Amino acid sequence: MITEPGTSGTVRPQGVGGPLTDVPLAELMAEEATVAGLIAEAARTLADEPTLQQTLDRVVELAVSMVDGCESAGISLVTRRKIESPSVSDPLVARGDALQYELDEGPCLDAIREHALVESGDVAADPRWPRWAPRAAADLGVRSMLCVQLYTSANAHGALNMYATTRDAFGPDSHHLASTFAAVAAAAISAARTEEQLQSAVQTRTLIGQAQGIVMERYSLTAARAFAVMSRVSQDANIKMVDLAREIVDTRRIPGVGEARDD
Predict the structure, then answer these.
(1) Model confidence over 36-81: pLDDT tens digits?
(2) Where are the domains of the chain?
(3) Which of 55, 142, 209, 247 is an S-S bond match for 136, by CB 3.0 to 4.6 Å?
(4) CATH fold match for the domains 22-196 and 198-251
(5) Shortest CA distance to 71 belongs to which of 158, 141, 164, 142?
């Protein structure tokens, strides 16, 4: 952004694909304040969501309501080398994302793999995706796309995908707001995932402890011996410890082990 020499009230922002234009400084400051207010409110809203899925759903909902030009939105996430869309606003997004995964090309994949932001103002004529673009335009009516990378952790990342059925739906203001919102959304998703994992770990530990107590009581074993028995059964039967524990709690017996004899 360039300030005009000898002036304090006008700036000349770099235009996207166009000439430099004079913009009143007060107007730019007002726009930045508006963006800051929207992002702050979005951050508070996402922090209130109790689960990971609800956080993902709210990110999609906010993208549609906040970003100018966005008619539909979805989230692509990569976990364990698999890409999926855990939250979409409507079937158009689900089909558009699935087609990208099937063909292994498209704007959301480029955002995930290479670029922080990928935009297309005319999907039908975009040469970057020779297989996906014609089908997305003809079959789904997609005309514009804006995809922003979501970096949630070293092993889990993705993209926020925004769809429109009109050409050139996303301007520079949309890029700025979407990029800023994506950073907030990524942090919220990461926090929600961590909390869910911690809750799952606590629940698993509690369940295994309950099962261990049942084995101790029914078979008159010490805590260490009861856990050793459960570990051996888990390995021999190729059952996860938590699944074995759940069965013990439900049936009050160890699968494959006879009933304890009364003395």
Answers:
(1) 788 888 889 899 899 999 999 999 999 999 999 999 999 999 977 7
(2) 22-196, 198-251
(3) 142
(4) no
(5) 164
